[in-house]
Amino acid sequence: MERIILHIDMDYFFAQIEERENPQFKGKSIVVGADPKEGKGRGVVSTASYEARKYGIHSAMPISKAYQLCPKAIFLPVNMELYQKVSEEIMEIVKKYLPRSIPSESEGLLRGSPAFEQVSLDEAYLDLSFLKSYSKTEALATKLKNEILEKEKLTATIGIGPNKLIAKMAAEKAKPNGLLIIKPNQVKSFLEPLDIEDLPGIGPKTGEKLRVIGINPHTKSFGVGVNKIKELKKLSKEKLAEMFGVVGEAIYERARGIDEEPVSSEEIIKSIGKQITFEKDTRDSEIIFGNFEKMIKEVHDELKENNFSFKTITVICRFQGFETHTKSKTLKELTNNFAILKKEAKKLLLRFMIENPKLIRLIGLRVKIC
DNA sequence: ATTGAAGTACACG
DNA sequence: CTAACGCGTGTACTTCAAT
Questions:
Q1: Which spans in chain A are helix H?
Q2: pTM metric for this prediction
Q3: Residue A102 pLDDT exceeds 80
Q4: How far is the CA of A136 from the C1' of C6 (A)?
Q5: Which amino acid residue lies closest to nucleotide B6, measuring CA to C1'?
Q6: Is the pLDDT of residue A158 over 60?
Q7: Distance (Å, rounded) from C-alpha A360 to C-alpha A353?
Q8: Å between A221 CA and C4 C1'?
Q9: What value does the mean pLDDT take over residues A269-277?
Q10: Distance (Å) of CA A296 to CA A94, A225, A264, A270, A362
Q11: Which residue is the nearest neighbor of B7, CA to C1'?
């Protein structure tokens, strides 16, 4: 029983919204993210318009580097409330493309039944297996793109394939303002020429480790290394499992386009937390504990809103030089008590301050929900 | 032998 | 001074102690 899965991904989402709200920015280099502060900013880029990308600027890049690459770009702060509202409107449009009655999640576990899954503010999957044909799916995708453009004045890219993995990778290849359909018999030729890091789950570290396979440490001669998915497929499941554990086994399957993950809106929150990076590395207890108390309050408020209890408290501390550590404490039993959270969290942070004299860059607090 | 706690590493949007 | 690197969340691994 073959499925047909659609992945929709809004193009350069935050920056595109800013363009829409400020038409005079259209065609200019826009960088949405932290304040660059004349090159001294410590945040990162959230989204860059395609004009800005021509300078090498991209998401997650340190804002200081983005500023170096193009100081004349338009740097805008993140207006999350606005993006959230636009996201809600778009997701409402996307959901309309499912049949009127979606099987309720508990009974809708049937593989291939109509389903919607939002994965971030600007990405979602639809299980459209009920359409039974790729040509009908293509027509639906075109309509969906048009409706979003008409109603929201924003472009999106859609990928379609036999599973979530292929749908997502197709969208990635087709952006911006694209539509790419990969039918089951095209999966192999679609995947093989792609870089290993195009495969979701292979990040910089895993990619690097695969790349240096084949380097003989004795002769120092460089072997071929694994750069393309075609080459990755030559590694046995056992070899990948030895190198990367269970992740390696998943990589083996994915390199072959195999992915059985259901489209499902089931999403259970398992932890909530806050973290803050200081403007300058510091040992000032006023600054450190002032911010920490505020974070404790915020975390507790979020717990209360959702009626959550916690059992494990983790405090994160990043020191000058980016050296990051965590300390955690698991309580005897579940609680939602503010005083306990405050006392235990502060104890953990205090231990950091005692054990390590370095200047502090970041502090964080996270609680595991039960 | 298994489970739980603590800590680290890596990935993703 | 070839480093610059947020935030929120999830999964997996390793080590050690307790059951």
A1: 13-21, 50-53, 63-69, 80-95, 134-152, 164-174, 187-191, 204-211, 229-232, 237-255, 285-306, 338-355
A2: 0.94
A3: no
A4: 42
A5: A328
A6: yes
A7: 9
A8: 33
A9: 97
A10: 37, 47, 32, 17, 15
A11: A326
What's at A369, amino acid-wise? Answer: I
Asked whether residue A243's C-beta has any atom of DNA/RNA strand B within 7 A, the reply is no
- Known catalytic residues of A are 123
The CA distance from A127 to A229, in Å, is: 26
Contact status, residue A112 vs residue A129, Cβ threshold 8 Å: yes
Cα separation, A289 vs A278, in Å, equals 12
Q: How many Å apart are CA A168 and CA A7, to the nearest integer?
A: 6
% of residues, chain A, pLDDT over 70: 95
Q: A196, A229 in Cβ contact below 8 A?
A: yes
* Average pLDDT of chain A, as a whole number: 95
Residue A92 identity (one-letter amino acid): E
Task: Read off φ and ψ for residue A328, nearest 5 degrees.
Answer: -135, 160
CB-strand contact A183/B, under 7 Å? no
pLDDT over threshold 60, residue A56: yes
User: If you count them, how many residues does chain A have?
Assistant: 370
For A287-329, the pLDDT digits (tens) are 999 999 999 999 999 999 999 999 999 999 999 999 999 999 9
List chain B nucleotides near protein: any atom < 7 Å from a Cβ: 4-13
